[in-house]
Write a structure and sequence with these properties.
The protein is α+β, with helices and mostly antiparallel strands. The protein has helices spanning 13-22, 69-80; strands at residues 2-9, 26-29, 32-35, 38-50, 53-64.
């Protein structure tokens, strides 16, 4: 098993959950999502602040089969490249 653990800014936990479900995951409650080849946890954490700018952030943790981790990461990165707000 391979692990990815990141803090991601500018995306709410609910939207990351939708992305994970679009990738075939099933929400099992409490920010946890499962799939036959991976499992993920998403948790909203304290906002990131620089001066008067405040941006939400999440703690993201995924465990996946070694074989698919690069493919999983590539698919997720495409979803995270979003414009607008």
């Amino acid at each position: 098993m391979a692990t990815i653990e990141r803090v991601i800014r500018g995306i709410p936990a609910w939207l990351m959950g939708e992305y994970l479900q679009e990738m075939g995951g099933v929400g099992v409650g409490d920010g946890r999502y499962t799939h036959p080849q991976w499992s993920a946890t998403v948790q909203q954490i304290e906002d990131y602040q620089i001066g008067s700018l405040v941006v939400g952030q999440i703690q993201f943790h995924v465990e996946a089969d070694e074989v698919i981790i690069a493919q999983f990461q590539k698919r997720l990165e495409r979803k995270l490249l979003r414009g607008g707000g």
